Amino acid sequence: MKQIRFILYGLFVAFFCACTENRIESSLVTGDQEGELEEVSLTLKSLPIKVIGEEYESEMQGKDTRQDDNSDVKESAIDNIWVFQYTSEGILLASPHYYSTTSSSGRGVPMEVMLRPAVNCQIYIVANTNNLLWAKDMKIGSSLSNLTSSTFTRSTENDMYGGTYKNLLMVGHASGKTVIAGKSNDLGQISLSRMVAKISFQFVMDTSVEDKLRITKVTINNVPSVLRVGEVTASPYPTTLTPCSMSDVNSPSTSMIYTWYVPENWQGTTGNNDEKKKNDWAPANAIYIRLHVDSDVDGSSYVYTIYPGENTVNDFNIKRNCFYWATLRVVSFATDNRVMAAPANCFVVTPKSSIVFDPYDRTENGGGWKYSDYVNKSVVSKKIASVRVLWQTAFAIGNNASGNLVYLKNDKIYVTAGPLNGNAVIAGYNSSDVIVWSWHIWVNSSAPVQVSNAVLYNTYEWNSNAIISNKRVRGRSFMSCNLGAISAGKGDGGAIGTYYQWGRKDPFPPNKLLTKGDAHYQAYSSTYVVAVYDNDTRSIEMSSSIGTGEVFNAVRTSSDIGTISYSIKHPTTFIASAKTPGMWDNNGGSNETPTHDTANYINEGDWYWGHNDRLWGGIPFSEASVNYKNIVANNGAEKKSIFDPCPSGWMLPPSDAWMGFTVDGLNHEGDNALNYANYGTEVVDNALALYMQYFKSGPTSLFPFCGWRNGDGSCYVVGYCGGYYTSAASYNYASSIFHIHPNLVHPYDYGYGYSRRACAYPIRCVREVKGS
């Protein structure tokens, strides 16, 4: 048998099943005076799915095993139908009728239906709407185009498969039929075709790579949410894509076949003639499958992308009632244009390694934000024309004056890391040299994003009435170090990591660890912040938190400044909520009273003018369905936002992430109530070694005393205590803060000066998939 290569290897295939007929019930949708109706016999049959390409190899057959949506779709079932009768000119003769049946058959289903006596008429059948009111408003005399242009919207995969019916929308018609009054009328067989296509996927790992590449997820993307009764006849369709939420395949296996049923998506053909470059020619709305991979070779995360279609070179049409089969065979560590760094705001690489990523490719939708509203190659002001290093720590990337380490080519961004662990932010600029978007490049030789390095965390069960501290439940696995850390050692300032204002995607450089236990406020200046350099490795000076036109400065928020647009264009600007930025710089002592005085803030201490609780993907605290004493709610992100700063596969932790770090999940001081292992050496260690799974036993993870930046931009308590953000908003325009220092653990700190969203804290990411 001839094989069709798809990416690295692939096939197209068909699969079909049918059942038997049981009982039929009928109901008439009234409202039109249509005269006498006649009982008419007909037989319904679901057509086989059309094979695109080669025959299916029988030894590869297998059941769809995705557990995310528990799909066991009866792809040939005819469970209910709407019957429409039109004249030969396409005018509706009778009110539509709805018929339900307990049948799951797709082969020769006999039925008795009611039609109006007429000569040379057209019969249309729409099956499996699962809705006896769907066509009730279609009036006698209306045009056939009213039916064929009708659409169904399916926002979730479960809806796409008919909910509990587990069936698929179908349509069929027959022409030239005559119904005679008083006669036995048999219209014969009417064949139904599915309004969806079937796509199946399997991946195979060569033995030479299976111990170095870890497959974490399979996704299907750009699946339209709209199905049209009438068949698409020309591309592109849809012209504007509103995607359906399709379930991911988490921790997939090479032994499984994964199947989706998707609406038509015709995006046409291109002039490409090179199989390796099909992805480069892909239209923006074309359906694609992704294999998400963690590499132990270079510590990075990648995505392998397949665009199904009628061929492997230039076709991007997915047609109804057709079956597309693809097998991806991964045979080496080599990458090309079909293998990109997994899209995110942060890319993790090992020293001297290289990545390529598509700056227009993001699928996160947590909080309702849409990436193409900000980065879009079809809009001049949102299209990236150049890219360069905005800031970097020493040799995180290196001298990019000639544009050989960070550059744009064919709408892809290429990055080569320098020889040392560190951090950098690269920015994409439009043709007017305005920043369109920016990305964090985290160089770390320890591969902190690898699943094998994650630390599983168990938290307490809880509800609106209590924290059940004697019952541990499986939580999300934590990253082994802070985001942006360059080490994870005790007493090492490199473990502090980068800082983030709540809801913003871009990091600020780490503060220096100077004196253990130093609780003074300090300016965000070169004295107290790690050295940073520009694109040409020239030193970037920081004279104060306020700034005097430097790359890094602090400005007071306002209706013009406290916006997403401003924050994207100015990723190095600290947007302050204190009435005077820098007001607490070098205040000569550790008195924190002024930071808790609401009179010293504007906008309730939030950098975002007017507040937005959804920036990091969660929902407002007031909308949470479970809320315990106004300190914790189930309002954290279930899906990543485009502003989430964590790498691919990781996300910000929820507000209940820290419960297990005290005896009962509440704020405590004192040895007996706190769940950490390094009593007596906390100051020397500059961290708490917190137990991750049990109280006073099991594995630990180090959480440094990283301090933070106050609402005016100044540095505070580095080496004395620490704070960590979650994705959840708290009450009264606060953020949910985890607060620690020697002999103190507060899973929920809501002190006014600590919880203001303009403050900048480090982040400890968790796995996107709970329990992984």
List the helices and strands and how they pair.
Blueprint: E1 24-28, E2 38-46, E3 50-51, E4 80-86, E5 97-101, E6 109-115, E7 118-127, H1 144-148, E8 151-153, H2 157-160, E9 170-179, E10 185-194, E11 196-205, E12 213-221, E13 226-228, E14 249-250, E15 258-263, E16 265-269, E17 288-295, E18 301-306, E19 315-318, E20 322-330, E21 339-341, E22 346-349, E23 354-357, E24 386-392, E25 406-409, E26 412-416, E27 422-429, E28 435-443, E29 458-462, E30 467-474, E31 500-501, E32 521-522, E33 532-533, E34 539-540, E35 553-556, H3 564-569, E36 573-576, E37 627-628, E38 632-633, E39 650-651, E40 668-669, H4 682-685, E41 687-691, E42 700-704, E43 708-709, E44 715-716, E45 722-729, E46 735-741, E47 744-749, H5 752-755, E48 760-761, E49 766-767
Parallel strand pairs: 2-10, 3-20, 11-20, 22-28, 35-36
Antiparallel strand pairs: 1-5, 2-6, 4-5, 4-7, 7-9, 8-13, 9-10, 11-15, 12-14, 12-17, 16-19, 17-18, 18-21, 23-26, 24-27, 25-26, 27-28, 29-30, 31-48, 32-44, 33-34, 37-38, 39-49, 40-47, 41-42, 43-44, 45-46, 46-47
Please give a structural write-up.
- The chain starts with 23 loop residues before the first strand and ends in a 5-residue tail after the last strand.
- A hairpin with a 2-residue loop joins strand 25 and strand 26 (412-416).
- Among the domains are: 24-48 and 77-148 and 167-195, Immunoglobulin-like (Sandwich); 486-767, no CATH class.
- It is elongated and about 100 Å long.
- It has five helices and 49 strands.
- The chain is mostly beta strands and 772 residues long.
- This is DUF4906 domain-containing protein.
